[in-house]
Automatic annotation (TrEMBL):
Domain Major facilitator superfamily (MFS) profile residues, every copy: 30-475
Gene3D superfamilies: MFS general substrate transporter like domains, Multidrug resistance protein D
Domain of life: Bacteria
Subcellular location, principal: membrane
The species this protein was found in: Streptomyces actuosus
Alphabetical list of CDD domains matching this protein: MFS_MMR_MDR_like
Pfam families membership: MFS_1
Protein name (Swiss-Prot/TrEMBL): MFS transporter
Transmembrane segment boundaries: 29-52, 64-84, 96-115, 121-142, 154-176, 182-204, 216-236, 242-262, 283-303, 315-333, 345-363, 375-399, 411-432, 452-471
InterPro entries, sorted: EmrB-like (IPR004638), MFS (IPR011701), MFS_dom (IPR020846), MFS_trans_sf (IPR036259)
Coiled coil: none
Keywords of this entry: Antibiotic resistance, Cell membrane, Membrane, Transmembrane, Transmembrane helix, Transport
């Protein structure tokens, strides 16, 4: 059988798999593997927020523990995702992808069995490491395996199935929390991995980059993750005013400075600072920080607001958030095509303003909020804004650098978005005056939510002004995204790390 790995016949050589003909079966197995693997991380990013109130009640935790449940995962994922892509290029994309899936599933099992919040948070950090290994590998496996003539169609199928998974995620998460319980939000990853790993080992050809012989920037990755972790700790625990908080508040920026110094001096840095010589690249990443900080705060607090204040069940809250994902699934590719014609400046200005308007509309969502008249209008406007800006943002990032660095640029942009989201989840409750037990009181949480949404809207307005002032039309012939359909809300889509894969 074509595509067997370790059997009597060898897999097709990298970049030779087709979607029709003798290697079509291998192509279908590769798509199944990558969809299953990426779905694990994608589902996790969409369903955990819905489960937070039930997690807090069952484990007897305060708001800080719920923030850490989200952010422990994001710290390790954002800090190590660039390193994960480099490991795949060096040691084999399939090998690192499979390692990531196994690691992610093992950490998910630990999350599902966690007896208390401390174990859950530690397991979430481990889960982020697995995510950093498997997330870059999904699209890279497709890029490295499929023939160039079929690569675009394969990426389209992968992103389309991923979009369906993203649309199902909040509904599935709510159903699991209401039914078997919140632990199954994590335990669901185990059967997915049990299918994904054997299929990958048997049917997916291995590939690597023979030119990649530099040393791994483990020190840089460690310092980056440490800086994020310390800053997050200082923001989440700021109300305590303890010595540990002060130490973290000082050590976090120092770790960030050390990270920059290490990256500047290393011959093979994880984050080559010269990539920021492109003013457009720097500007778009600043816009990304604003946009995804607001998104991170919005989706974290809205899932809680709908349950704590409006009285929605987890299933109702998860289903309520579907319109944004469905709009992204249906229209993100068309938005990218429109931006190609008119340039990215207008979409990157109008999109954040629409999202800011949506967050102000969310002020209508209070006690006994009606879905059709209070919640849905805000989410439709939010979805329209995300459709308008996400695809052009990704395209502009890739167009801002040399083609051979497009994958690196995409990884940096993705990591920046995740870092912005985790800082927002840490800082927004503090800025909104949300106490540690606020999520147990409808009136207290509603009051803080009404202070938080204008803050998010203001950050989006800043992003829109930055885009209007700094973003220009890309040069002709620049690199375009491989992934045209995008439905995740945590970060922009990733591209393969190498811009010149065979």
């Amino acid at each position: 059988m074509a595509g067997r790995v370790g059997g009597t016949q060898q897999s097709p050589a990298p970049a030779s798999v087709r979607l029709s003909g003798p290697s079509a079966a291998t192509g279908r197995w590769i798509l199944l593997t990558t969809v299953l693997g990426s779905s694990m991380a994608l589902l996790d990013s969409t369903v955990v927020n819905v489960a937070l109130p039930r997690i807090g009640r069952d484990l007897g935790t305060g708001l800080a523990a719920l923030q850490w449940t989200v952010n422990a995962y994001m710290v390790t994922l954002a800090g190590l995702i660039l390193l994960g892509g480099a490991l795949g290029d060096r040691y084999g994309r399939r090998r690192i992808f499979v390692l990531g899936v196994v690691w992610f599933a093992a950490a998910s099992l630990l999350c599902g069995l966690a007896p208390n919040a401390v174990v859950l948070i530690a397991a979430r950090a481990l889960q982020g490491i697995g995510g950093a290994l498997l997330t870059p590998g999904s699209l890279a496996l497709i890029q490295a395996s499929f023939h160039p003539d079929d690569r675009g169609r394969a990426v389209g199928l992968w992103s389309g199935f991923g979009g369906i998974g993203a649309a199902v995620g909040p509904f599935l998460g709510g159903w699991l929390v209401d039914g078997p319980g919140w632990r199954w939000v994590f335990l669901l990853n185990v059967p997915l991995a049990l299918v994904c790993v054997p299929v990958a080992l048997r049917h997916v050809p291995e590939s690597s980059d023979a030119r990649d012989h530099g040393r791994f920037d483990v020190l840089g990755a460690t310092l980056g993750a440490l800086a994020l972790a310390l800053l997050t700790y200082a923001l989440i625990e700021a109300r305590q005013g303890s010595v540990a908080v002060v130490v973290a508040a000082v050590a976090g920026p120092l770790a960030a400075v050390a990270f920059v110094m290490v990256e500047r001096r290393r011959p093979d840095p994880m984050l080559p600072l010269d990539i920021f010589a492109s003013r457009q690249f720097t500007a778009v990443n600043l816009v990304t920080l604003c946009v995804y900080a607001a998104f991170g705060g919005f989706f974290f607090l809205t899932a809680l607001q709908l349950q704590v204040v409006s009285g929605y069940s987890p299933l109702q809250a998860g289903t309520a958030l579907l319109p944004t994902t469905i709009l992204m699934l249906l229209f993100s590719a068309r938005s990218g095509a429109l931006a190609d014609r008119i340039g990215p400046r207008i979409p990157l200005t109008v999109g954040p303003l629409l999202c800011a308007a949506a967050m102000l509309l969310m002020l209508r969502v209070g006690i006994d909020a009606d879905y059709a008249t209070d919640v849905l209008p805000a989410l439709l406007v939010m979805g329209a804004g995300m459709v308008t800006l996400v695809a052009p943002l990704t395209a502009t990032v890739l167009a801002s650098v040399d083609n051979t660095r497009a994958g690196l640029a995409s990884g940096i942009n993705n990591a920046a978005a995740r870092a912005a989201g985790l800082v927002a989840v840490a800082a927004l409750p503090l800025l909104a005056g949300m106490g540690p037990e606020a999520y147990r009181s409808a009136s207290a949480f509603d009051a803080a939510f009404r202070r938080a949404m204008p803050i998010c809207a203001g950050v989006l307005v800043v992003g829109a002004l930055l885009a209007y002032a700094t973003v220009r039309r890309p040069v002709p012939g620049c690199r375009h995204p491989e992934c045209h359909t995008h439905c995740a809300v945590a970060a922009p889509p990733l591209e393969p790390r190498r811009g010149d894969l065979p």
